[in-house]
């Protein structure tokens, strides 16, 4: 695949830019479709890109096709719009009709439908992990601070809660403090959930954010992402740490994440949910 162009459909956040940088390092040209209202055109100065609104998906795919790209990466944060706000063009309306009721299901249902449309249009949908393998993390502790027994029990509780959420295709995260579920992630996303937690925390040891891949989720295309903003949100919410799925979450700017967490005394722990036990802090070694 070396040298073949890549189409990047870019939402918000730093991850689309990291994929673009990885493409350059691999010697693969790329064209970027910036989703209006999410990706900032100023960040893509000097690159080959066009801005499309979500309802103009047909024109976006035609433009990618004209570049010669066969692979498409969907990456970056996008808040789901209402059908009325889409204002679809003719092709966009046809795509919505093909997706049907899956557009109103959970994220997994919608993404599965979008990937199907991309394949039917002759493209190969690929995930950012094809380009950002270094953004994944094996099991272990990344920081100087480590979870104590209370935090380990909260992580175990959070794993059970998030896996239940995931099976219902609702969210990928939850915050637990002293066994109490302070918040679960839904359509608002992790940052907004952490902002809510600031007013919900109890006295005593801080809680933990647990962020996992949903059971059955497509790890190739849709993986949870954490970055410096996640760490800042956890600090502001008074949390003790963040536990995330090893080899199942993408870390944006890991060095900055770890440095900021160390400065605040926050732990970052990569776990394997199936092997995790909250009975002992020894799992942090």
Automatic annotation (TrEMBL):
<dbReference type="InterPro" id="IPR041255">
    <property type="entry name" value="LpxI_N"/>
</dbReference>
<dbReference type="Pfam" id="PF06230">
    <property type="entry name" value="LpxI_C"/>
</dbReference>
<dbReference type="Pfam" id="PF17930">
    <property type="entry name" value="LpxI_N"/>
</dbReference>
<protein>
    <recommendedName>
        <fullName>UDP-2,3-diacylglucosamine pyrophosphatase</fullName>
    </recommendedName>
</protein>
<feature type="domain" description="LpxI N-terminal">
    <location>
        <begin position="6"/>
        <end position="134"/>
    </location>
</feature>
<dbReference type="InterPro" id="IPR043167">
    <property type="entry name" value="LpxI_C_sf"/>
</dbReference>
<feature type="domain" description="LpxI C-terminal">
    <location>
        <begin position="139"/>
        <end position="268"/>
    </location>
</feature>
<dbReference type="InterPro" id="IPR053174">
    <property type="entry name" value="LpxI"/>
</dbReference>
<dbReference type="InterPro" id="IPR010415">
    <property type="entry name" value="LpxI_C"/>
</dbReference>
